[in-house]
Design a protein that fits this description.
binds 2-acetamido-2-deoxy-beta-D-glucopyranose; membrane; about 40% helix; four-stranded parallel beta sheet
Length: about 270
Amino acid sequence: MKKLRTYYTQFRHNSNQAMERKWILPLALGSIVSLFLLFLTTLTSFDGSPFLFFYHPSAVLGGSSPFVESQLKPIPVSTLPPPPRFAYLISGSAGDGLMLRRTLLALYHPLNQYVVHLDREASSEERLGLQKFVKDHQVFNKFGNVRMIVKANLVTYRGPTMVANTLHAAAILLKEGGDWDWFINLSASDYPLVTQDDFHYFSDLLHTFSYLPRDLNFIDHTSNIGWKEFHRAKPIIIDPGLYSLKKADVFWVTQRRSVPTAFKLFTGKRC
Ligand SMILES: *[C@@H]1O[C@H](CO)[C@@H](O)[C@H](O)[C@H]1NC(C)=O
C-alpha cells in the first residue's frame, strides 16, 4: 500500500499537460483491452463451463481442493496399451568403459534388453572391468537382460565392420532377448535426454512409444538408389578392421567394381 502510494505521488508530481496527453492513448487502449477481457469472461464453452479457466469459481476458490492433482482420475489399467520393449546396443571403444556404464545405467529398465560391446581397441582390462560390472550388478542379474559381447570385434566407424557388429548384436538380441519392439543402437557417449520410465510426468520414452504401432519403422528406405549407384556402390572401400588388429580409417582404392547383381541394394535414412 505504501509503495503504491509512492508511485502515485511521483506520477502526480511529474505530470504536466504534455504528459497527460501522452497518457491518453495507452489509457484508452488499456480500457479497451480490459473491456474485451471482461467480455470474454462472460463467454462460456460448449459444455457450459466458463471459457476462461482462471475465472472458474471452483478453480479459484477450490470447491474441495485447489490442486489439479486431486481432480485427476487414474486411467483404468485395462485401457493402457502394453508397454513397449526396446532392445539396445551400446557400443564403445578404448577409454569408453566408464561412459558406457553411465549410459547403460541411465537407459536401464527391466522390460528392455541390452547388449554392450567394447571393441577390440579397448584394453582387455577395460573389457574385463565392464564384464565384471555387468556380471556383478544385482538388478541386471535379477532380470537377466544385459549381455556383453565378450569376444570383441574391431569396429571401424563407417566401415562394414560397424554394420557387421550392429547385425551381430541384433542377432543376439533376437535369439536371446525374447520379444521386443524396437532396436536402438547407441554409442557410449549417447546420453539420454528423456527417462525410460517416469511414473509421475508421463513424458518418458516407454510412455511415448506405448501409443505407436509396433510395426512402425524409423528407417526410411528405398531401392531407388540414384546417384549413390556410382558414388556408393561402385567404389571399392577397404575396412582395415577386417584384417588388421590396429584401428585405422576406411580407405578407397582407385579401381571400381560393377554393381553387384546377387542382391538388391537399398539406401535408407533415419526419419
Ligand atoms: C548404428 O548402426 C549403424 C549401422 O551399423 C551405423 O551406421 C550407425 O552409425 C550406428 N549408430 C550409432 C550411434 O552407433
